[in-house]
Specification:
Belongs to the 4-toluene sulfonate uptake permease (TSUP) (TC 2.A.102) family. Pfam families: TauE. Keywords: Cell membrane, Membrane, Transmembrane, Transmembrane helix. The chain is an all-alpha fold. The protein has one domain. Helix 1 packs antiparallel against helix 2, helix 3 packs antiparallel against helix 8 and helix 7 packs antiparallel against helix 8.
């Protein structure tokens, strides 16, 4: 792996760790578009680039999530009861998501990523006030919600925060608690999705050297080292920002990344 790629991945990892801590998004919303750019510049097989970016993104979230959630837990912001209710569905959905992705070509996968991210950004930017009586559903509903979050996160290589944060705020969970809880949900999403991407990627020929299934191991190592160091700083920043500012930052970030992936889908 050449020095320019290492430098790019280090910078990306630092930015992703900060964003993961601040927004509870696991970093995948940043990682996938930028890794797609880096892998394209390094002339990886075009038909595998988006799949590899998504798989490597999910694998890094295992490490980023742990670092981020420790910082949020120290502030008692993580709703562990919610994590326990959502996690079973998330584990199943996160295995299924990469399987769906393996059936799609790179352009379709990039388009799916863009649509999901733009929708989440719109929900956050509109900042519609939920009904005062609305609350999180009972256990069966939480299992179903976890399944949907897991499938979408596994499909597009994210920590699930682009779905789970809007879902929780829609159910009257405070934004800071939603971000912190989403960070905790990133680990089961990443674990199941990583195992799935290894399993389904092992059957694919012509992947670059140093790949484990769809996961590009050098990128996983460099990004994880950088992101773990900046995630706690992002978490501290999140708790110092007002709610409306945090929502706007979240939404604008998602829009910018959706735009790039649309370009990748149709360019």
């Amino acid at each position: 792996m050449d020095i320019s790629l290492v430098a790019g991945l280090l910078a990306l990892g630092a930015a992703v760790g900060f964003a993961a801590g601040m927004l509870g998004i696991g970093g995948g919303m940043l990682l996938v578009p930028f890794m797609t750019m880096l892998f394209t510049a390094k002339h990886f097989p075009q038909e595998h680039i988006v799949h590899m970016a998504i798989a490597t993104s999910l694998a890094t979230i295992m490490f980023t999530s742990i670092s981020s959630v420790r910082a949020h837990h120290a502030r008692r912001a993580v709703l562990w009861r919610v994590v326990k209710l959502l996690a079973p569905g998330i584990l199943i959905g996160s295995w299924v998501g990469p399987w769906i992705g393996a059936q799609l070509n790179s352009s379709t996968l990039a388009l799916a990523f863009a649509v999901f991210v733009a929708f989440s950004g719109t929900q956050m930017l509109l900042d519609k006030k939920p009904a005062a009586a609305r609350e999180l559903p009972p256990a069966p509903g939480m299992f179903a919600a976890g399944g949907v979050i897991g499938v979408l996160a596994g499909l597009v290589g994210a920590g699930g925060g682009f779905v789970s944060v809007p879902f929780m705020t829609w159910c009257n969970v405070k934004i800071h608690n939603a971000v912190a809880t989403s960070a905790a949900l990133g680990f089961p999403i990443a674990l199941a999705g990583t195992l799935s991407n290894i399993y389904f990627g092992m059957k694919v020929p012509d992947l670059p050297a140093s790949s484990l299934g769809f996961i590009y191991l050098p990128a996983l190592l460099v990004i994880s080292l950088a992101s773990v160091s900046t995630a706690p700083l992002g978490a501290r920043t999140a708790h110092s920002l007002p709610v409306k500012t945090l929502k706007k930052v979240f939404a604008l970030l998602l829009y910018s990344l959706a735009s790039y992936m649309l370009y990748k889908a149709f360019g």
